[in-house]
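Bumping with the actual sequence this time:
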Amino acid sequence: MSMEKYQGVIPAFYACYDGQGEVSPDRVRALTKYLVGKGVAGLYVGGSSGECIYQSVKDRKITLENVMEEARGKVAVIAHVACNNTADSQELARHAEDLGVDAIAAIPPIYFHLPEHAIAQYWNDISASAPNTDFIIYNIPQLAGVSLTLSLLREMKKNPRVIAVKNSSMPVQDIQIFRSEGMEVFNGPDEQFISGLAMGAIGGIGGTYAAMPELFIKAREVFLSGQIKLALDIQNEINSIIYKLCSAHGNMYAVIKEVIRRQGGPDIGGVRKPLADLIENDLAIAEDCVHRIRAAIEKYC
């Protein structure tokens, strides 16, 4: 199976709201067009950055439908379809396949700590609802409360649609471990992008990529060309920007949305409660991030 279309920098797509806090089709399309124009390899829709746990099934369908209107045939689209019950997850999986996405993805069920056989059944039930679509396991133990184990991975490998793991666990070693089982892996933690590539990740899916796609694309380019020192220098610059993005009162995604606006990108609204939106003091942080990103692009790109 060719994984070429999934290789590279794949931003996690942000929730796009209108002035009343509802999903805006126009703003979804605007952000999609903006990111495709930046030269990214794909889009990861409906995950943490998309505020999926605070959205209805209808919200998530509207978002994906409008992403596909702009992205179809241009970049790979991966739809995260997990909900905290199987039926809704299956509905989103069927919907994603009908739209023609390249792959679907799912975290494990959260809150109740389920045994591995129940998690495997959940993922396989979702996959069965999109039988012609690639399936990506999303491992994010720090939020989901459960880690992808080798025994669970080996069980999931029996499903021929399972092609990769989106690995957001902090130990970079996990990428090497999953790859030793013959599984392709996307790097998750943005601060470890180059480390993940060094461990064999085919690319990355990240929540800060859309704020500075040029830097992640360049870091990967120079890493693959053997310019390791330069790749690490860019990674260090990226990390300093991420730390600043996380320093505000408002949620990091709220800061990033403001950064995109100040970079000349689309206005995609704020964040949905209970996520904290920006306060006045956060605007200086957003502007500082814009200056840092511009300076890094000028220096490295």
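The tokens above came from a reply further down the thread. The longest strand covers residues 134-139.
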